[in-house]
User: What shape does this take?
Amino acid sequence: MGKPYPPIGYSAYLKTEELLSLQNKRSDEFGSPAHDEMLFIITHQTYELWFKQILTELDSVLSVFDQPKIDEVDMAKAVSRLQRITEIQKLLVQQVSVLETMTSLDFLDFRDFLYPASGFQSMQNRMIENKLGLRSETRLTYNSAPYHSYVTQTEQEKLIASEKQASLFDLVDRWLARTPFLRTAEFDFWQVYQNTIAQIFEEDRQTVRNHPVLKADEKERNLKEIEATNETFRALFDESKYEELRQAGQFRLSYPALHASLLIQLYRDQPVFNLPFQLLTALQDIDELMTTWRYRHSLMAHRMIGRKIGTGGSSGAQYLKNATDKHRIFSDLFNLATFLIPRSRLPALPAKVREKLGFYYSAGA
Ligand code: HEM
Assistant: This one.
């Protein structure tokens, strides 16, 4: 018996004819053919295709996190989709080298035909940023205009709508804030962690005070440094101080979400925290790869156009370089490393808690 649907060939399925008819060089159209314009168009189009795939994955991950309770199976799916995004991002970073085989002189053969088009108007790229959680108030602006004033009216409406939706950052924050096991009858993680930190700082002070080689002024300087680090930790133990720093932009995660992230990082070896740990790692990878892409792209722009302004009207490579640092989304997860303590100093979990954190079969064994 045949299949209940008609057969289809490769080109009909992939619509290759339509796809391959979409690379139209403006340099040909205006009678000054430039060989490298084809590479320029194809590179941008493949980026846009991969952006579409990233958005597909992101939307599915957002729908998983946009639930009051996340099923373990869905969580595993979300993590693997985020990991897929990171693999795509690696390709996107690599693709820069392909375009860099075009020299700045080659680019000048057709650059004028592009004006005022710019990657700045890539709607899908902005969507990715918004859905991940880049906030419009933290974006760099130029010409005092919002980033979405450079796209079409329809795209602008979509972007503004996406700003109003909960981003992955928001949803992960909410999910982290709900993390159980932070305080149970047997185990108050926060108290235990705070005591351990106090102990570590006291040992550090003793080491400096009793140091056989350091001179008095060096000891004083070291002790001051210890107190400065201790001050950073104090913000972690004092919610109102933390909120102050958060308002000042030093942290973005909510207080309970930060605590939960720390717990997950510290006890990542416990089976129940393994998947959440993979999730936090994937978010860090996405942030790092986005930053890497921004930096590579800014270098490429620098070698292509030097100090000229961009076709979109920005300061060019300098704007792109500044955005590299300014447009980070998950930096809090990186900053958490400040508060990690060695495994050897990690407070042992009470047996009952360990049992709760284990897989069911091992807990029952
Ligand atoms: C010859 C190669 C390229 C040059 C010289 C270049 C240059 C620039 C410049 C100067 C900007 C800043 C906005 C402006 O004033 O126009 C920009 C923004 C941008 N470009 Fe490119 N670009 C190149 C290739 C690409 C490619 C292949 C992509 C892939 C999609 C891309 C995506 C973007 C994006 C997404 C932005 C916005 C970045 C942001 O605002 O954070 N560019 N580009």
